[in-house]
Write a structure and sequence with these properties.
2 helices, translocation, five-stranded antiparallel beta sheet, SH3 type barrels, 2 domains, alpha+beta, transport
Length: 111
Amino acid sequence: MSFFIAEAMAEPGAAAAQQGNPLTFWGMMIFMVAIFYFMIIRPQSKRNKEHKALMEGLAKGDEVVVSGGMMGKVVKVTEEYVVVEVANNTEISFQKAAITATLPKGTLKSI
């Protein structure tokens, strides 16, 4: 017998008692995958679809918000880029993916 560590005394039926039901294990695994899907994957794919629809629907004259928080009016739309007028005679070119939202018409006039 060791002074610091007590010896483990196992009962003959203890190994069988610790063995769980495999259906319980697989049931919990399926439950965790379902939670992961409904809490993370599904909402993210929904947001991606909405953003893709936003980028495809951009047109000249739309008032938009860029990912950095800058607001402006769309002057020109190409396949990958958008030219946004942020002030009088000040135009900046952005990638379409940088557009985060469109604003209702007349929002920029009220600012």
